[in-house]
Amino acid sequence: MIKKGEWYIKESSAYHQPAEQITDAFFQETTRIKLNMDIINRVDVFFPIIHGTFGEDGTLQGILKFLGKPFVGPDLLASAVCMDKEGANLRIPAEIDEKTAADIQQTAIRAYQTTCCEGMARVDFFLRDNNTFVLNEINTLPGFTEISMYPKLFEYTGITYSDLITKLIDLSIERYEENK
Q1: What is the mean pLDDT of residues 49-64?
Q2: From CA 72, how far away is CA 21, in angstroms rounded?
Q3: Other CB atoms within 10 Å distance of the CB of residue 171
Q4: Mean pLDDT over all residues of the chain?
Q5: What is the reported pTM?
Q6: CA 174, 61, 30: angle at the middle one, nearest 5?
Q7: CA distance 104 to 106
Q8: Could you count the other beta carbons within 10 Å of the beta carbon of residue 71?
């Protein structure tokens, strides 16, 4: 989906391109579709990985909720609350002591729960030289290509990219069934 609200289907796996590399040729090789309920009803689970305004600010999540469709990731409220973004460099694994790691994990869990996040989010921190830390952001729609940090974090713990996608879809269906 592009910002003008038009939806496109592409038959190949060329979706995994940096935004700056997508040209008019990308859209010439796609088929523009008219969004209607017949198309929406054919989708089992939506996986909204549209960054920026309308994609990760709760707008798309609200539309999907209104339509009664299951979707991966946090709900409207968490997406809207966590929209403010700042960049940071990540190192996997972080070079910190066990106590600091445990403190950061507990803070991340509390922040995730406080903002009503569900399904997926990446909680980022800044680490100071004295091993104190500051919560930087809760990214409710982290990058999701195979080379993005979010799947790499799971890969480090032994969860493959494919297994992560399957788990997120399963969680979204569970949430949908619970909220019917």
Answers
A1: 82
A2: 26
A3: 17
A4: 80
A5: 0.65
A6: 105
A7: 5
A8: 24
Alpha helices in 20-160 (DSSP H): 24-28, 37-41, 59-67, 76-81, 98-114, 149-156
Angle, helix 149-156 to helix 161-178, in steps of 10 degrees: 100
Exposure b/e, 155-164, CB count within 10 A at least 16 = b = eeeeeebeeb
pLDDT (mean) for 85-105: 80
* Token output for 126: 């800044």
What's the CA gap between 114 and 168, in Å, rounded? 20
Distance CA 129, CA 140 (A): 27
List, for residues 96-152, the tens digit of each pLDDT value: 899 999 999 999 999 999 999 988 899 999 988 888 999 999 998 888 887 788 899
Residues 6 or more apart in contact with residue 140 via CB below 8 angstroms: 56, 73, 74, 78, 79, 82, 83, 117, 120, 121
Give CA–CA dist 158/152, Å, rounded: 10
In the block, residue with structure tokens 């990540």: 90
Which of 40, 63, 69, 49 lies closest to 140, judged by CA? 49
Q: Which residues contact 145 (CB under 8 A, 6 or more apart)?
A: 16, 151
Using only C-alpha atoms, the chain has a radius of gyration, in whole angstroms, of 18
Length of the chain: 180
Instruction: Report the b/e string of 122-150 with b at 16+ CB within 10 A.
Output: bbbbebeeeeebeeebbbbbbebeeeebb
